[in-house]
Write a structure and sequence with these properties.
Blueprint (H helix, E strand, L loop, with lengths): L1 H64 L2 H8 L5 H22 L3 E8 L11 E3 L5 H7 L7 E5 L9 E8 L6 E9 L2 H9 L7 E6 L14 H9 L4 E4 L2 E8 L4 E8 H4 L1 H44 L20 H40 L1 H19 L3 H18 L5 E3 H19 L3 E7 L7 E3 L4 H12 L6 E9 L3 E8 L6 H12 L10 H17 L4 E7 L3 E9 L6 H16 L1
Parallel strand pairs: 1-2, 11-13
Antiparallel strand pairs: 1-5, 3-4, 4-5, 6-9, 7-8, 8-9, 10-12, 13-14, 14-16, 15-16
Helix pairs in contact: 1-5, 1-8, 10-11, 11-12, 12-13, 15-16
Length: 590
């Protein structure tokens, strides 16, 4: 019980608390990061809207620049005051009125005239001498088509804005006036409202040189101020402070929007204590429930464990369980299964003892069977020696060839050999049949490759030679010639066994070729020749892999050619070839 409780605390309670805390901090950090990023996007969208407002207000200059009556008026084209007054009231004042109506943020539109002969009829046109010298120095470097925005009061966070741009004559060759558009601070206020500056969120301005222009920086800690001076990121979180910033290019200032994390996530912080309390109470309740449940289970488990410790080969007694409500639950099922297993183990142990006795008997019989091949070899060797002593060369030769074949067939446990050895055994096999068929059978072996270096399965060629003898030489009375030829090219090795017998009928040839391409199992009704050829084909594919195969070419009355195509393997495929050969050997041995 102590182990269960200790395991619960170490493996469940502590990991759950640690994971819950880590998960909460991760979620909280991700939430604040996502919030800051969303605030930055809102700030950028508000700035995009403000730039649209700037462009709309700046379009007033274009309207006035391309109004010929206004440019003629500022250029002093009108000779009389009456013409000037008429042009002003008829064409210029409606232009002012329309500009003010379409841009409600504009407080005033003034043009400082640069020529003395221009009639200053109203306050819309002022003398150049009335322009502030500092402003005159600021706008002196402006080029045609270029304007500048200035803050009316640089020391407040919501200043009025002033836009200046020169008006040129009709040929854009001479400055004839300076357009001044004063915009109320509602434009900046709308920008702040769109950027989310409300409640505890504050906005401050930094100059292009990094100096504070307003007093809102007094509420920021020293570390945040240092980060604002050096930080290149547009947003960051410094402990409990959220900071978003963006450069306002037209005003050459940087707007800083700050807020406190606690004010933003106050509701989350309030729920944090409740969440932790619920988790702790839940874990305590689960611990009590776990303890009560474990106490009812561990007793029977401990009883089963004590019983299992007493088991031995000579003591395989079953555990008795009292009948009741616990008999059919999981622990009861476990005990019943355990009793069945113990009974089965007792039975298997007895079977193992009996199997050991049978194994010893089988080993004795195998030992006796090993004498039989040696007895056969010795008998054939005795026959050969007697035949040679009696000067009977044919009996001696056939005994020698048959002995070689039997030793090759029975002595080796491996399923792999080389082509040279396989051809040698085929020669012995054909010698035996030539001894029987005499002049009706002739053969030829033509090897044009290094046969001692080409590995192949054992008894690969014997079924093909046997097929040529049975269906070629034995089926006709005329002499039959069997030819075994092995050649190679850069990509493949070809081994051909051909005869000049009767050949194979087209229907039978088609059936054999289809059987070679199928992967169905052998049937007892299949002819031995078909089974042998399919076996050779499968062994070639399994041993050599790739596109290696057996091909059958035959023409009635002219003979049959069975060709083994072995695809040469590259260095990349050597590992796969070795795997196929190991699989081939294991399947053959099995």
């Amino acid at each position: 019980m102590r182990k269960i409780v200790l395991g619960y605390v170490i493996m469940i309670f502590i990991p759950v608390i640690a994971f819950g805390y880590h998960y909460y901090t991760q979620i909280y950090g991700n939430l604040t990061q996502q919030f800051v990023e969303s605030r930055q996007k809102i700030l950028e969208q508000a700035y995009a809207n403000m730039k649209t407002d700037f462009a709309r207000i700046q379009s007033v200059h274009r309207v006035m620049q391309y109004n010929p009556y206004l440019t003629d008026y500022l250029d002093g084209v009108y000779d009389s005051d009456a013409d000037s007054v008429y042009a002003l009231t008829r064409y210029i004042l409606p232009l002012y009125t329309q500009s003010m109506f379409s841009n409600p943020e504009i407080e005033s539109i003034v043009i400082y005239k640069m020529k003395d002969r221009v009639l200053p009829i109203t306050n819309l046109f002022r003398e150049w001498s009335m322009l502030d010298p500092q402003t005159e120095a600021t706008v002196a470097s402006l080029k045609a088509g270029q304007g500048i925005w200035l803050r009316a009061d640089p020391n407040v966070s919501e200043p009025d804005l002033i836009y200046y741009q020169y008006i040129y004559n009709t040929q854009i060759t001479e400055r004839i006036g300076l357009l001044e558009i004063r915009v109320s601070n509602s434009l900046i206020r709308n920008f702040y409202a769109a950027a989310g500056v409300e409640g505890n969120w504050k906005a401050a301005l930094l100059s292009g040189q990094g100096q504070w222009l307003t007093d809102e920086a007094a509420g920021l800690d020293k570390k945040t101020l240092n980060l604002l001076q050096a930080e290149e990121r547009n947003f960051f979180i410094n402990r409990n402070m959220i900071v978003n910033q963006l450069k306002l290019e037209p005003l050459d200032v940087r707007v800083i929007i700050t807020g406190r994390v606690g004010d933003v996530f106050r509701s989350v912080k309030q729920k944090e204590v409740v969440l932790v309390t619920i988790i702790v109470l839940l874990l305590i309740a689960l611990s009590i429930a776990y303890y009560l449940l474990a106490s009812t289970i561990t007793k029977r488990i401990l009883r089963l464990a004590r019983h299992m410790r007493t088991l031995s080969d000579n003591n395989l007694r079953q555990l008795t369980i009292p009948s009741g409500r616990y008999e059919k639950d999981e622990i009861g099922f476990l005990i019943v299964t355990y009793n069945s297993m113990v009974g089965r183990m007792d039975e298997l142990i007895n079977n193992v003892h009996r199997a050991e006795l049978r194994h010893k008997e089988a080993a004795y019989q195998v030992l006796q069977a090993q004498i039989k091949p040696h007895f056969l070899y010795n008998t054939l060797e005795t026959i050969r020696m007697v035949a040679e002593a009696n000067n009977d060369k044919e009996v001696a030769d056939i005994s020698f060839w048959f002995g070689k074949l039997m030793r090759y067939s029975l002595s080796s446990a491996q399923q792999e050999t080389v082509l040279e050895k396989e051809i040698e055994m085929v020669a012995f096999y054909m010698n035996i049949h030539k001894m029987r068929l005499q002049s009706r059978l002739t053969y030829e072996i033509d090897v044009q490759l290094e046969a001692d270096k080409l590995s192949c399965p054992r008894f690969l060629l014997q079924p093909l030679i046997e097929n040529s003898i049975v269906h070629g030489a034995s089926a006709v009375l005329r002499p039959v010639h069997i030819r075994l030829q092995a050649t190679e090219t850069e990509s493949e090795v070809a081994i051909e066994v051909s005869d000049n017998g009767n050949g194979i009928p087209p229907e039978r040839l088609l059936e054999l070729r289809e059987r070679l391409t199928r992967h169905d199992e052998f049937k007892k009704s299949d002819e031995p020749s078909g089974v042998g050829l399919k076996n050779v084909n499968e062994r070639v594919k399994g041993f050599f892999g790739g596109n290696s195969r057996l091909e059958i070419i035959s023409e009635p009355g002219k003979g049959t050619c069975m060709r083994i195509i072995i695809e040469k393997r590259t260095a990349v495929d050597d590992e796969d070839l070795d795997r196929r050969r190991r699989t081939f050997d294991s399947e053959r041995v099995g």
